[in-house]
Every structure is written in C-alpha cells, then in structure tokens.
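User: Structure tokens for this complex, please. No commentary.
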Amino acid sequence: MHFEKYQGTGNDFIIFNGLENKIEDRETLARKVCHRRFGIGADGMMIVENSNIADVRMDFFNSDGTVAPMCGNGIRCFAKYVFDNKIVELEDFTVETLAGVMNVNLSIEGGLTRFVTINMGKPEFETSKEDVSIEANRIINKKLTFDEEPYFISVITMGTLHSVVFVDDLKSIDVNRQGKTIESAPIFPKKINVNFAEVMDNENIKVVTYERGAGQTLSCGTGAAATAVVSALVKGTGNDINVHVLGGKLQIKQLQKEVYMTGPAELICRGMYNF
Ligand SMILES: N[C@H](CCC[C@H](N)C(=O)O)C(=O)O
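Assistant:
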C-alpha cells in the first residue's frame, strides 16, 4: 500500500489514502508502521477518508495504536498531503477530526504547500470525569504531587487533553521519567499529554512534550498551543508568540478566544508499505 511520510517540526507521521484502500485493523497497522525498527518509523499515522461535514476527514492514531481526537503537527502534514496530491484542490478548506471540524489555510510556494495555519478552535478547561479525576478538573497552575515530586500543573483540552508544567530550567527535567509519571497518573484515567515549559520572554517560550501514546517527541502541535494559552494566563506572555520546540518553531496566535497555529509541513518520502 502506497504511503507518504511527513514531518512537522520533527513530529513525524505516516499517511495512507483511505479513499484508495480499504484499511482495516487500523490500530494494529499504526503500531506496525510507526515502529522505528520493524516498521517505517513515526510518531503517528493518519488515514484520509471522506467526510459529510467537511472537505475531508483525518483519522489519527498514535504510534502505540491508540486513537487521539486531534494532532496539531499531524493536521498540517495531512493538509499538505491532501492538497499536494490533489485530493482537495483548495488553499482554504476544512478537515473533520474527532475534536471537531478544523479550518486550514495553506501557504503555497512553487505549487507546493510549505506552511499551514490551523484554526484549532477554543481551548477548554472544563474536563469530563472520564478523562480527569474530579480533583484535577479545571486546575490552572495548581500544586500537585506526582511520585513525591511537586509540580505546578494546568489541565487544558486543545483538540486533545494536555497538562502544562512551567519550570525555571527545562534542562533540569528528566522528560522521559517525569513525563511518564504524570502521563500515567491515576488522576488521568485515559492518560494525558505532558508539556514542560520555560518562559524566555513575552513573545517566546520553550516547550518539551512527553506525548500520550508516543512518548517524548521533538514537537507537539496541540501541546504548543495548549502551553501558549496557559502561558498567557499564568505567566502573562503575549497572545501572538513563538513556541520553540526541539524540532523547530511554531507560531501560536490567540484571537477572539480562538487559537491559530502556523508551522511547517514537509514531505520526507513516499513508497510502498509491505504488510
Ligand atoms: N499524543 C496525542 C495526539 C498527538 C498530538 C501531537 N502529535 C500534536 O502534534 O498535537 C494524544 O494522544 O492526545
């Protein structure tokens, strides 16, 4: 089956066209294709499908096979894929996700997509008790202890469920150990994405993310957006800032309560997946 591999600020994805192939057992397929040794290797997998409520539908899976409602870096790569492959021949179009219909705007150079802006909608601090135990609902910069270590943590849904922890020095954080501890804490029954952040100045923050279902990645688009929202609230940073992630830089703009993310999307390769 034909695939294309993309990356957006170092978060990488395998994309298949569900309009050409009937793709079954998707969670198993995601685990196989995303495996860095036995597969192609990626942080996640997307499948293109038709939509009744948008121009196209994006089905997203983490590298561990779990379904996630939205992926910020992924939808930028997905938008590039569907435009450059002439599935959608519009520079402004809509993508159906489990987190709702997202508006995308392409920046085209030489006939190909280079940058994509996504309207990620409104952030949500109210969470359901299926996702977050009652004691962690609507928390903003609250001191909680995980594995006997204190963290000032915020919980926010920005397409998908995120926690945000500000620290004075990101280099002091063992992202894999401490990220995993929070990601799998009992108060998050469905797990949670964990963003460790450091404020550089009013227009720049640094974020390193331990992703639910993928582990530490070079970037998390929804995590960058979620952190920018919390940063404005808790640290007083601006409404149009640069989020510096390990794999590059994302621009996050808050306008009339909606959050816009602009960032790159790049085709790495295309080929035939043998399964
Ligand atoms: N791991 C996330 C989904 C992918 C999000 C991330 N790759 C992004 O760019 O937003 C979750 O399980 O909610």
